[in-house]
Amino acid sequence: MLALALALLAVVQAPADSWITLGTMGGPVAAPERAQPANALLRGGEVYLVDAGDGAAQQLAKAGLRLPQVKAVFLSHLHIDHTGGLAALIGLRDQTDVREVLTIYGPPGTRALVDGIVASLKPAAAAGYGIPGQRWPAPESIVRVVELAGGASVRVGDMTVRTAQNTHYDFAPGGADDRAYKSLSYRFDTPRRSIAYTGDTGPSPAVAALAKGADLLVSEMIDLDLTLARVAQNSPGMPAPARAKLVQHLSTHHLTPDAVGALAGSAGVKAVAVTHFAGGSDPARTADYRARIAKGFGGTIALANDLDRF
Questions:
Q1: Which of 51, 120, 124, 257 is the Cys-Cys partner for 292 at CB 3.0 to 4.6 Å?
Q2: What are phi and psi of 229, to 5 degrees?
Q3: Please, are residues 63 and 40 in contact by the beta-carbon 8 Å criterion?
Q4: Helix H or strand E encompassing 59
Q5: Any idea where the Metallo-beta-lactamase domain is (predicted)?
Q6: Sign of the four-CA dihedral 156, 159, 164, 168
Q7: Does residue 267 lie in a domain region?
Q8: C-alpha distances in angstroms, 234 versus 175, 237, 298?
Q9: Per the omega criterion (within 30 degrees of 0), is the bond before 28 cis?
Q10: Spatial CA neighbour of 293 closest among 269, 310, 242
Q11: What is the pLDDT of residue 243?
């Protein structure tokens, strides 16, 4: 009886699986105050990276996490602000002789992305530290790729990971582009917790269904005016046709604060953490974001910063 009581007490006192927003700045423009999109699902001593924007390795270090702890990577889609840190993650593991194979899950095209990264790392691996005959491991030997479509379900240890194809792209369903390029949302169900992650998406019934009843929804959000102002500052000479396409993308393929509230309310989640601040963070607008989200959602609302834990 005593042994059983102690075991139950250990389960109760054990920390719940936590989510760390490593980087909360959406692209396409980098910012000094926030890193690019990356998240860590922390399960005991194991780390599962969800998107890997530029600076992901450094953000892991700031969170007190080591590269060998990363057991898998889940990519929502292949835009560079969500994948730019993957090369450093793989290359630094190779350089420091982390032999455990890193599984990278992602949409169609992930294999081509990783193959390109591996090719770019081969010269450094061949040179090693410049000691004759002492190369680093072949980069291709420490990674494997699993490509996923919407509606997929995979088991990773005792965790179930499910996907939904979202509305970040407008390709005709079933067409060649749709088969070749997909943007995914994820749901991570562990024995203790359920966490849904939108990645980049517009309003999507499929994402609402995926997130149904989750303990936490980690959602992207866009402030269109701030984002366009930042783009104009970074690229003042952008041609009008290019700007028009960007406006179309930003306004239809992302979630406004009102849309975040509608999604969270429809899904019936317990809490929402907002990330992917493509326009940066303007404290003067924070209250407005919360009020607009709260119109559709009565639960807990957090506007995430880099390295916040949920």
A1: 257
A2: -65, -40
A3: yes
A4: helix 56-62
A5: 36-235
A6: negative
A7: yes
A8: 35, 9, 37
A9: yes
A10: 269
A11: 79
Q: How far is CA 100 from CA 123, 232, 242, 292, in A?
A: 21, 44, 43, 45
Amino acid symbol at 31: A
Is 264 in contact with 303 (CB distance < 8 Å)?
A: no
Number of structural domains in the chain: 1
Residue 277 DSSP label: E
Cα–Cα dist 286/221, whole Å: 12
Domain, as residue range, for 295 = 15-309
How many residues does the structure list for the chain? 310
- Which residue shows structure tokens 């990971």? 161
Specify the DSSP class assigned to residue 15. P
What whole-number distance in Å separates Cα of residue 167 and Cα of residue 170? 7
Can you give the CATH number for the domain in which 157 is found? Answer: 3.60.15.10
Choice among 109-113, 200-204, 229-233 with the minimum mean pLDDT? 229-233
Task: Judge whether residue 251 has pLDDT over 80.
Answer: no
In angstroms, the CA 271 to CA 34 distance is 22
Would 2 be classed as within a structural domain?
no
The average pLDDT across 213-232 equals 87
pLDDT digits (tens, 9 = 90+) for 47-95: 999 999 999 999 999 999 999 999 999 999 999 999 999 999 999 999 9
Query: Is residue 7 included in any domain, yes or no?
Result: no
Q: What's the order of all strands across the beta sheet hosting 153-156?
A: 153-156, 159-165, 184-189, 194-197, 216-221, 271-277, 300-303
Residue 171 has pLDDT above 70, yes or no: yes
Arithmetic mean of pLDDT, 16-36: 92
Instruction: Report H helices in 145-239.
Output: 176-180, 205-210, 224-234
Task: Give dist(CA 146, CA 105) in Å, integer.
Answer: 5
Contact in structure between 173 and 194 (CB atoms under 8 Å): no
Q: How confident is the model at residue 4 (pLDDT cuts 50, 70, 90)?
A: very low
Residue 181: inside a domain: yes
